[in-house]
Amino acid sequence: MITQGPFAPLGVRSRERTVEEPSSARLGPMEKIYLLWLAGGSCDGCSVAVVGATNPPVEHLMQGIVPGLPRLELLHTALSVEMGNEYIETLAMAARNELDAPFVLVWEGSVFEEELAGDGFFYKLGDGDGDNATTSTEWLGRLAPNAAAVIAIGSCAAWGGIPSSHGNDTGSKAVMDHLGVDYRSAFGVPVVNIPGCSPIGDNFMETAAAVLLFLQGLAPLPDFDELGRPAWLFSETVHRHCPRAGYYEEGVFAEHYGEHECLVELGCWGPVVQCNIAERGIVNGTGGCMQMGGICIGCTMPGFPDKFSPLYSTPPGSLLSSNTSRVFGGFIRRIRRITMVDKNASARWEGQDAPSGFARYRSKPGSGVKLIHRAYRAFQQSKIGG
Amino acid sequence: MTPTMTERAPRPPSSGGKILSLNPVTRVSGPMGVHLDTDGSQITDAWVSGNFYRGYENIINGRDIRDAMPIASRICGWCGTVHMSTSSLACEMAWGVQLPPMATALRTIAQCTEAIWIHAAHLATRAGPDYCAEVMATTSPKIWERAQRTSARGAGTHGYESIAEIMEALTPVSGRYWAQTIPAGRRVMEMINVMYGKFPHPSVLAPGAVGRTMSWANFTEYYTRLYMSVDYVKQVCALWDDLVDFLYEADPRFMELGARPTNFIHAGAWDDTHTAYTYENLDLVGSLRLAKPGVMVDGQVVTDRLSEVHEGIAEHVDHSFYERTAGSGSAPSGSLADGHPWFGSISPRPSAQDFSGRYSWVAAPRWRGEVLETTPLGRLWLTALRTDFPTNDFIETTGHSIKIVVPMNNQPETVVEWKIPQRVNTLERLRADAYGIAFAGLSAALALLKAFEFTRTGETQVSTPTEIPDGPRMGVGLYESGRGMNVHWLTTDNGKVTNYQVIGPTTWNASPRDAEGRRGPLEEALAGSPIISEAGDGPLGTIDAARVIHSFDPCMNCGVH
Q1: Domains in chain A, ordered, with CATH?
Q2: ipTM of the complex in this document
Q3: Mean pLDDT by 10 residues, chain A (386 residues)
Q4: Do A84 and B21 touch (CB under 8 A)?
Q5: Best of B11, B18, B47, B59 to disrupt the A interface by mutation (most A CBs within 10 Å)?
Q6: Fewer CB in a 10 Å sphere around the end CB: N or C, chain A?
């Protein structure tokens, strides 16, 4: 029978308590940690997003080769080798506090209100042998008190998301809603939320690594905002770092998909949405929303999707804000253009064609514009020497 | 120790053998349970259950039509782009809008790329571990012993000298093939991001648009990653050929493992860029697709017309936790089967699992009463039979095989040939997954060349301006995910969704019994399968059932929704 060896990171697991040889270069008390990845109303998109993470990549954590971080033993229905009762037994041991290392519970998807299913179920996990739980919601209740930390990944787990939106039959809600405001993990941490639909894999990885370093005693507990989001990732609006934000400032808006200007009038909610995808992309810096041509539909926000619906329609607030920037930004854009034309000609070409073989580029301003340039330069040069 | 089973949970009736419960089945997407009746030498019966329900159809119903695409995408995080593309086809038909050629080319590139992701991730992380060294040594010591002294024919391509080395490479986390596939898969995600903005749920799709702001960066970023992947494709085909052929030789019972009749249904995918996707045009659209549509029953092609594939679909819920409400309406032309999903709807009725009654959240779609499978194997099979494949530099169909030229990179140009197999079984489904990577990869290359051509001719428009249509409208999106046929139906009235219905690939494959009591495809494949493992009651005693289940790459997210 298999007990150890090549399967260890993904099962089939030893049920014996083993004392591992401490490595001499080890940082912190934990050699390994269990990552119990459970789901409710999920699409697995957050799991897939985490496979896309690169800082560090998930396989390095499972191989145990990231300095300072414990080796991950992962329990996940999409990856684990163990099945059926073998799989359930690890959960049961965690619920009884019998695992040979601490565990972090990562929850993906909404939490179902199983009472609404009567004799049936919305998510069945295990046959309920012995006193084991049979629904994933029940497992959450049993495991959360023993977990070193509970991390809600994705907007469904963090806020309820699409499964909890208008028209749902399942009474779906967020992990926080289910566990309540007083919940603290065994290590004293409230529910950590990494929103996004799907989230950026590296947002999860970076936060999980920070929490693990904290559990190792190597780093402080990172900053979280009032809703349990990693503060350094979610405190800015996505618009502030959007590569198209400059178009907004100058009052230029795309009218059709595929155009390169600001997307607000096509339905982009970026100016009011807390998200960092504009800086980070989605995998290895590739992809994203506005940088690629897609509107922000608010998928990181607790109000998603109902408070952003109908999607692809212009946010009402932009009537005021984008029209204001059309007027003021339009004026600024025009006077910037005058300066830009001037800066595009070297001093040698003053009043003549640029020596480019591609096209005729002539910098010969009219007398009014010439006056503006002269005044502008005089003012600029008055600053020489401070 | 494996805990002993108690009788607390409901179990199906046994015909005298032993009932085994696998809940959860792992290495599938979403929660799935399987009950098996066995007599020690074979699996005699099986019940497959989809073990969760989120209610996407009811969530989309009643909303603004513009909400449909982004919400439908969230049905599945493994293949979210295909759900959004399929939903957008349904919207395009309902709105009467045609995508510009460049947008259709981008869609094909993105969807081929997602198919690569599904095939590659399935083989390495979900199916592959069933054949890894530790599993083989524990469950089939004789086969393992033989693997150690059998040299691998494809060693020159994949680099593994013996079959045993291949099996070691299949080991999760530490195995070379497993560990190589994760970063390779990540690169494939980047390729999808370059075209569709965001994976798994695209950011740039909109009604009438693949709204990617185009630049040369798209193409250079994409084809750089594509050419860096071609050696991986050659290696994976060679690896699975060696493994599959070896297992047949080592134990002929593998031929019967997961076997079922040659019954397939496919919608086909990867469209001609200048053919409008309308209901009237369905047959033309289907005939021009790179992956061909059709229905096969007992090895015969019953139809290759997309309209007929569509009209014959019916959804049974007699053994599922739903109640069916018949709706009224008729298709623009042709007659729809009884129980066709376009106008009727199904509502959740959760109840205790009862294996002679309702036991699954998966509904049971059938086509003109036939129990049909939809997998990469069926897709390649139907495509290989067609001799009207457009002439091109990479892919040729011969009527009995598909020849694919995989270009040079560090390894020389290689022609890989997938041949129609003798049987539909577990190992052939996996082999088709491997060749599916080559087929999808070079289909992506063909679409990329099209996109280059449009850049030269100035057809760079990626969106068609649209207005929300008045009055009642209807649409159906018929397409393929990596796993099989994906269909979304939509009816709307004055811009509001009045009915949204989805049948994903796993809805077919993992369906429970239907109104007539016929088993679903996966249940059929399990029943009658030999038990090859010698592990008895140990934790790997159900490995043969796992192999059969994994060969369908089940996804409960798509299957139930």
Answers
A1: 5-232 (3.40.50.700), 236-343 (4.10.480.10), 348-386 (no CATH)
A2: 0.96
A3: 65 72 67 95 97 94 91 94 93 95 97 97 93 94 97 98 98 98 95 97 96 90 96 97 96 96 96 97 95 97 97 92 94 93 86 87 80 88 85
A4: yes
A5: B59
A6: C
